[in-house]
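Before a colleague's protein record goes any further, I have to sign it off. What it holds is a sequence and that sequence's fold in token form. My question to you is simply how this chain folds and whether the tokens agree. Thanks in advance; the entry in question is below:
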Amino acid sequence: MTPPALSSETDVATLTERVHELAQRITHLGDQGEDAEIVEDIDTSHALALSIKPYVDRLISLQHLMNPVGGVIEKREQIQELQEELAEDIALIEHATTDLDEVDPSLLQDLQTEIAAAKRDRRIEFTDDAVADEDADEDSSAEADSTALQERSTEDRLRAIFGARFIDTERLGEMLGGQLSDEELANARGSLEQAWQRLVSLPQMRQQVTEGRLKSLRRAFSEYALVYRTTTLPDGSPCHLAGLRDSLSGRFVQSSERSLWYSKLGFYREAIANGHWALVDSQYLNCTFKRPKIRLMMYARANELPPGIVRQKSLVEDIYDRLICDSALEREFFANCHSLTRTVYQMSGDDSKKQVYVYYLDGMIRLTGKRGIPHWRPSKPRWPGVLPSLALSDSPAADVVDG
């Protein structure tokens, strides 16, 4: 008989309590009390002992199993606490170095090198190495020089850098089944320059643009896409999960709305609050030992990004990005993981909230809810992760749920 999998700390605590209860009951079988009698008949005592032996053996095995499981969970919590403390310490050190004007530059550089090595997080690197990117359009050497790049329109610059991964409003309308509203188009076009300016403000980015280093720029953003998140769909309805299922039903498991476990929950019709451009990373940050908040904070510091620009996606943003980017590129753009969103819900009668996470399975986009982190297991070989999203034009500050 295969023992049931322990899916959470709650399951472990429940099983531990049950084991201890059985242990006490077996221990006190021979105690003399109001509800117990000493069995004087030897044959009956022997038969009783044999009958409970399998349960005692199972109890002993369970107790052996419970000790390492509890120890692993305890150690994991200790590791998470330690990582949070280290992240805070590194942040304090980095902040302190900004005021050290009279320190030997070589020492300060060594310190910053050590900090970067300790963080070891995903960085946007600029190099001149060639990159094999089937999405980027090849330019001639004349078009790629500094004068040509700076003289281009904002859309042409972004198209030169991102190729097909710059999803403009025209392509967006094609994928959503119609042209966006005039108001939405005006907002998208008006905020594109702001998105470009924020992109250029990234460390080393302006120098790369000024020098016309197109090859370096393409390589740095080869795993990123720039997409406009609209608040309304072409038919005028809000851009929420319910509307996206109707518009792009081919990417979801076919089922009636009544049979969906989440159709009555608030997030099903929670729309994108404000139209904005977002730079989305196709690679996730692993959250096995670090919470999403810590991973995103380290990611922002590793890339020297301004506060608030890196955000944890909501459920509708995560699904919208997948639908649009996958359709534009004709492939699954995002690395598969249990993507932890900032969307939470609470079922009727439950005392605690659950977090929604998204993943690919058999070419379909799926979502489910869970308390805590959905860890990797052989039956579900997907790591828990958070997909970074950089808000490049005005959008409401997100309430990071973490996870």
The radius of gyration is 28 Å. The chain has two domains: 9-28+40-78, 146-391. The first strand starts at residue 166 and ends at 167. The CA atoms of residues 229 and 258 lie 28 Å apart.
